[in-house]
Amino acid sequence: MHPISFTVNGERQELCVPSSMTLLELIRDALHLTGTKEGCSIGECGACTVLLDGTPVTSCLVLAVEADGCELTTIEGEAHGGELSSLQQAFIEAGAVQCGFCTPGMILSARALLSRTDDPGEDEILEAIAGNLCRCTGYEAILEAVRIAARRRRPGEAGDA
Amino acid sequence: MIGRFEYARPKSVEDAVSLLRERGGDAAVYAGGTDLLVEIRNGHRAPALLVDVKGIDELRRLEIGETELRIGAATPLNAVAESRAVRHRLVALADAALSIGTYQIRGRATLAGNVCNASPAADTAPVLLVAGAELIVAGPAGRRSVPVQELFTGVKRTSLSAEDIVVEVRIPAAEGALETAFLKQQRIRGHDLAVVNVAGSVDVDTRRMAVAVGSCAPTPVLLDPVDTRGQSPAEISERLITLAEKATSPISDVRASASYRRAILPVLLRRLCDRLAAEGAVA
Ligand SMILES: Cc1cc2nc3c(=O)[nH]c(=O)nc-3n(C[C@H](O)[C@H](O)[C@H](O)COP(=O)(O)OP(=O)(O)OC[C@H]3O[C@@H](n4cnc5c(N)ncnc54)[C@H](O)[C@@H]3O)c2cc1C
Fold this sequence. Notes:
The complex is a heterodimer of chains A (161) and B (283).
Chain A: E1 2-8, E2 11-17, H1 23-30, E3 49-52, E4 55-58, E5 71-73, H2 86-93, H3 103-116, H4 122-129, H5 140-153
Parallel strand pairs in A: 1-5
Antiparallel strand pairs in A: 1-2, 3-4, 3-5
Chain B: E1 6-8, H1 13-22, E2 27-30, H2 36-41, E3 49-52, E4 62-64, E5 68-72, H3 77-82, H4 84-89, H5 91-98, H6 103-106, H7 111-116, H8 124-130, E6 134-139, E7 142-147, E8 152-154, E9 157-158, E10 165-172, E11 178-185, E12 196-203, E13 208-214, E14 221-222, E15 226-227, H9 233-247, H10 258-278
Parallel strand pairs in B: 1-3, 2-3
Antiparallel strand pairs in B: 4-5, 5-10, 6-7, 6-10, 8-9, 11-12, 12-13, 13-14, 13-15
Bound molecules: flavin-adenine dinucleotide.
């Protein structure tokens, strides 16, 4: 067992984890943050995407012990005080959520993209979310949601699509 | 839980090597884990100890020197793919790195892990072969240099011992400028392993061309060098196709049949020559 100390969505956590526990298991089974989904468990589908020190990772392919000293962000960290983030709001407006299974990972990949640039090109958006599979929407509405959210972040531009 | 293993995160190369040594063949170097954790989950491997090398500062650098490029073994592939200097000096390496997996995978996966995993389809392997790259390897007897050309011994097999750690990948600067290109045939436009991948380099001073082919033999294969002086791109590609047919032995697997691989390989080699010709590197 390894003692680890880290923050989850800004809140400090200290606990002991076994070596072979994945970060995904830590999030869902120990922290009970079930917004993060388990899909393929081999890094292909992106449903388990979370941010580790701001970098999107598939939490099924990261060990829990590696969270030690890190800032972990899950989908539960997107909304603040009961208010949805502008990215979440944009997903609703664009109709980018159908069954919802890919949505938490999709939003966190998009969040990481928007923290790198607030004016992503079409190729950049595609590349940023290529690791998040969606079987419902056909992706168009998701691309639109990311464009809307990016526009709203840019100073001096009205966000309305 | 995936498997049963212990985990250690040493702070120095020397500590990491001693851990591997103490555990004999029972321990595995853990870098990005994007191959290793999948293999453990699938039950193909069951190491008793994972030695995480990401806590070793020396392994996390990316240095662009006058005479060589040095890429630390724990540097994630996104850093390689996004480096302007890498793209400027060795565009094929930037392209190959960018073609691997997804943004999330590349945030963890490493260049050293890609070659140490020794998959015949490893996308950076053909590039490192044509660029004359070498690995700086630390073992119980100290450090040594291993040319990437001497690394691959079979499917998922390398000439490294269980006590060795790759510290960095070093890519020498060519005498003249080096024009390079990487092409990957995959089943879908999104992320996928290569059905066939090829890389080429031309030293613009000597006009010597090196080409390597992946996914067509138990290991990535470096073809005999070709002197391109006085040759048209069409003549060069015919020469490469003959060399490649002799040096490869494609098989059928989940991604493609052997006959498809045999058919697409010449196509990729012609495109590779055209690409290098467009850069002014040949003829
Ligand atoms: C969804 C997905 C998509 C992928 N797509 C591609 C693709 O398109 N192309 C491709 O080529 N690969 C692909 N891969 C495979 C993998 O991501 C790459 O091979 C990656 O570069 C491996 O690096 P790593 O750091 O994760 O290695 P690890 O998994 O940590 O290690 C791999 C092997 O190398 C050894 N090793 C690692 N570092 C060292 C070191 N410093 N010294 C000695 N031994 C070491 C390990 O012990 C292990 O045997 C994909 C994987 C996934 C999960």
